[in-house]
Amino acid sequence: MPSDLNWAIGGEAGDGIDSTGKIFAQALSRAGRHVFTSKDFASRIRGGYTAYKIRTSTEKVQSVVDRLDLLVALTQRTIDENLDELHEESVIIYDGERSWEAEIPDEITGVSVPLKSLAEDAGGAIMANTVALGAACEIASFPIENLDESLEKRFGDKGSKIVENNKDAARLGRDHVRENYGEFDYELETTDNDYVLLNGDEAIGMGAIAAGCRFYAGYPITPATDVMHYLIGRIEQYGGHVIQAEDELSAINMALGAARAGARSMTATSGPGIDLMAETFGLAATSETPLVICDVMRSGPSTGMPTKQEQGDLNMTLYGGHGEVPRFVVAPTTISECFHKTVEAFNLAEKYQLPVYLVSDLALAVTEETFDPMEFDMDEVEVERGKVVDDETVDEWLDEEGRFRAHADTEDGISPRSLPGTADGAHMSTGLEHDELGRRTESTDMRVKQVDKRQRKVETARERETFDYREFGDPAAETLVISWGSNEGALVEALDILENEGIDVRVLSVPYIFPRPDLTEEVEAAEDVIVVECNKTGQFADLIEHDVLTRVQRINKYTGVRFKADELAEEIKGALAADTEVTA
Amino acid sequence: MSSDVRFTDFKSDKQPTWCPGCGDFGTMNGMMKALANTGNDPDNTFVVAGIGCSGKIGTYMHSYALHGVHGRALPVGTGVKIANPDLEVMVAGGDGDGYSIGAGHFVHAVRRNVDMTYVVMDNRIYGLTKGQASPTSREDFETSTTPDGSKQPPVNPLALALASGASFIAQSFSSDALRHAEIVQKAVEHDGFGFVNVFSPCVTFNDVDTYDYFRDSLVDVADDDDYDPTDREQAKDAITDADKEYMGVLYQDENSVPYNERHGVEANKADIPDGAPEGAMDLVREFY
């Protein structure tokens, strides 16, 4: 009996697809099952196809696959959109009493449940989706009691009556299936495991609070808005504040102001917002202001496809902005890393007094995954504020006239930092080229000194920090696959598929774009090198080729949809076959 | 904050590169006097400026300061004040900085009512880029970008502020030194966003809005016993009067509640623990 299940609910935006999916995902997670969710959504408020998909197993799952076992279809389009993924054992739950005539493929089992009328029996048509969840529990042999906790969490604020009605609705759905259909071939076991379920935007917000971020300014934009949603109402409890700015230019400038006042400060946006922020990014770099700028990438250019996946902003974060300014670009590769790299981004920003791009993507942002809570062990979080002077230590950084040398030329390139309020630490900073005091200069000597000093911070960081990669698969394999961002999960699962077919692969998942690990040895040791990324031109592959001075193969996807594990396994096989043909 | 602070303590040793006779000298002196008179000192003062002649002010004053990018000084000041409410925040800008590129920020800074002082050096011309029309340039004014005279009416920044819900609106004249310092001081003392539009003549590029013009034409509302700055209707009449230009505190909301107070933002956010905050595991448990 299969214990893994690929489940989905689909309908029109506004049908409550997202919250229904979330309720079921939480129920599974609370029952000790691993969960991985994904979403199909359009850039509109109501109408249009939207779906919430859940993959659940007792083993860790971290990718989507081309398979759908149980589908709650609120519209015909939901069935049509997913035809490719349905198979002979698939089951579709639909409301046979509704106005649309469900066209269900012959080989697939349709389970008709009067969702609306049963919901009305339980107290209101609005609970139709809950009826469907109850039906799904029955089909999957999943104890409905686990759903109750989820319903309490979702509707608890609305009062016990609403919670009870929903529990009743779920049971009516379950009973309908039990009475009208036989047993199904699924059994979702529960375990004693203790998991948390969260998405990448939430993990970034949580990382920010953990790292002591006390100021967030942002402007709503898909798919970064959830960072702001997460922080509002939570960060205040830890002494922080969120402000919704009038635009992205304001957001980054507010964040910069807060950083100058000494607060750990962040803004998050997506590609179009990054473009607007570029000028102030340069100011942050040259005024040596620690700032975390989060870019949750989506399909570009321009407005592109706001609700679709892409990893197209790498070059923008790496090279964007006029002039030459040092920056760090850190790109989490998993939802758990969204937390850890956010903490690290704050530390890097303050230790090296420069802006840090934290580059995430839509696939990380909107999908949820289960984790052992200790993956987010708060005791492990370290806050390093760098060279901040206090009323005593400020003296050693004053010039002979008692003026604070905020941009002092130091061996490691890192100057002292005095936070406002520090006696004798008063100074100005500017986007103009400046001297050690922060004042404008056009002196050729000082210009060179300051440019070198700022650049030297990167060299210092290379010496002091570890910019490494995560490794999977067979370390001795002749095939090396390199990836960045959210592709890691699908790659790790693709490894298993390939291994079963006798193909050994070594995977390097690189969370640092700049500075980044030197992969020369790894690339040279491999027979075939393939770089996987969600963009057309292979922006990361270009970097590898540049660093290692060798050609690599590329697997690029820019449909707007993330890689799936089985798809990646096929692509890698294809790349290896093509390579063999060429060399043969 | 010490009581023996003199206004010269806010002066840096850098000599201004403003043209001789520029109104910005007087504007800056008034800002420094206002800060000293209200008991602030350089270590607890943050000055933010954008680009242009006005933007140079951070260099010539001694305090914590940031010279930012064009038009974005107000968001920076907003971030500074929310992050550390103990600081006295003063934002300086020009008419181009504040009413052209930064006009959007101006409207929102006004309505947010963050407790800071915004001084705009309004010379009705772009000076540092050598004489183009500004948003406050008069209709028919001839400049290098309006050789046949400007065909657009000027922005009325005071009306814009009033319409956006300003809690303090004042206008002053840089050359009327004591009165200017007094007006800026009232803005500093105001609980909320203190907006002062300062006529700060450009002696090089504007031969219309000159010292003589302002000296002869400005009417100080303080000279009118019947003028009540807390009366919004009266303020509206003065601010939208097409025939006269007024100086002084034109409008002040006595019940102004600044942003930080409204949002309960009190603590200096620079103080953070050296690890995750206490109780941070609650953040993880929420995801069960």
From TrEMBL, chain A:
GO molecular function: 2-oxoglutarate synthase activity
Domain Pyruvate/ketoisovalerate oxidoreductase catalytic: 13-174
Any single biological process term in GO: response to oxidative stress
Protein name: 2-oxoglutarate synthase subunit KorA
Presence of keyword Transcription regulation: no
InterPro entries hit by this protein: 2-oxoacid/accept_OxRdtase_asu (IPR022367), Pyruvate:ferred/Flavod_OxRd (IPR050722), Pyrv/ketoisovalerate_OxRed_cat (IPR019752), Pyrv_Fd/Flavodoxin_OxRdtase_N (IPR002880), Pyrv_flavodox_OxRed_cen (IPR002869), THDP-binding (IPR029061), Transketo_C/PFOR_II (IPR009014)
Region (Disordered): 406-445
Alphabetically ordered keywords of this record: Oxidoreductase, Pyruvate
UniProt xrefs under PANTHER family: 2-OXOGLUTARATE OXIDOREDUCTASE SUBUNIT KORA, PYRUVATE-FLAVODOXIN OXIDOREDUCTASE-RELATED
Pfam families for this protein: POR (PF01558), POR_N (PF01855)
Reaction(s) this enzyme catalyzes, per UniProt: 2 oxidized [2Fe-2S]-[ferredoxin] + 2-oxoglutarate + CoA = succinyl-CoA + 2 reduced [2Fe-2S]-[ferredoxin] + CO2 + H(+)
Composition skew (Basic and acidic residues), residue ranges: 432-445
Transmembrane segments: none
EC assignment: 1.2.7.3
Subunit structure: Heterotetramer of the KorA, KorB, KorC and KorD subunits.
Residue stretches making up the Pyruvate flavodoxin/ferredoxin oxidoreductase pyrimidine binding domain: 207-451
The organism's place on the tree of life at top rank: Archaea
Enzyme class of the recorded protein, top EC level: oxidoreductase
Gene name in the database record: porA2
UniProtKB/TrEMBL annotation, chain B:
Domain Thiamine pyrophosphate enzyme TPP-binding stretches: 51-198
Pfam short name (any one): TPP_enzyme_C
Cofactor(s) needed by this chain: thiamine diphosphate; [4Fe-4S] cluster; Mg(2+)
Residues annotated as signal peptide: none
Protein keywords: Iron, Iron-sulfur, Magnesium, Metal-binding, Oxidoreductase, Pyruvate, Thiamine pyrophosphate
GO biological process, alphabetically ordered: cellular respiration; organic acid metabolic process; sulfur compound biosynthetic process
Domain Pyruvate ferredoxin oxidoreductase beta subunit C-terminal, first and last residues per copy: 202-264
A GO molecular function held by the record: thiamine pyrophosphate binding
UniProt region (Disordered), positions on chain: 130-154
PANTHER family registered for this protein in UniProt: 2-OXOGLUTARATE OXIDOREDUCTASE SUBUNIT KORB (PTHR48084:SF4), 2-OXOGLUTARATE OXIDOREDUCTASE SUBUNIT KORB-RELATED (PTHR48084)
NCBIfam families according to UniProt: PorB_KorB
Protein known as: Pyruvate:ferredoxin oxidoreductase or related 2-oxoacid:ferredoxin oxidoreductase, beta subunit
Species of the source: Natranaeroarchaeum sulfidigenes
